[in-house]
Amino acid sequence: MSPGNQEITLKDKIQEALKGAVKRQQTVEVSTLRLLLSEVKYAEIAQQKPADDSKVLDVIAKEVKRRRESIEAFKKGNRGDLVAQEEAELAILMSYLPKQMSREEVVAVARQAMDAVGARGPSDKGKVMAQLMPQLKGKADGREVSEIVSELLAAR
């Protein structure tokens, strides 16, 4: 790239990874990245503008959530073959998300958010989540954050 060009976007990185996966004949990676890029394209069509890194992260997070739900369902149905497939796809998708926060890190940030909004109990969960989720976007699973906030508010 010439110095005048903009920096490489997350979408560009995914497209480059797809080219490499095709050359290496990594079928799971190829299918996962193609699906991801098509979901990004749908998001661009829906918002009628190119997806920025933030939007691409939203799409990846949605796909990660979908894989986790599928893994749970397949485990309940004793479908080990499908669990393995979904876990392989999940690992590929996770590699494009920022480093995931530990439970302790989420608890610390949640406590700060609770203090910031003056949360007193479970009825304040909406205010806390509204403050918290933009900070944790792509860095923590929304369901886990919700559970942590509920536990912390119940203890107040």
Task: Give a description of the structure.
It contains 7 helices and no strands. The chain has helices at residues 10-24, 27-47, 53-76, 80-94, 103-117, 125-136, 142-154. Helix 3 packs antiparallel against helix 4. The longest helix is centred in the middle third of the chain and has 24 residues, at 53-76.
* Secondary structure tally: strands: 0
Which regions have little confidence, pLDDT < 50, spanning 5+ residues?
A: none
CATH C-level class of the largest domain: Mainly Alpha
**Fold-level CATH name of the largest domain:** Hypothetical Protein Yqey, Chain: A, domain1
Write a concise keyword list for the protein shown above.
156 residues, mainly alpha, Hypothetical Protein Yqey, Chain: A, domain1, Arc Repressor Mutant, subunit A, 2 domains, 74% helix
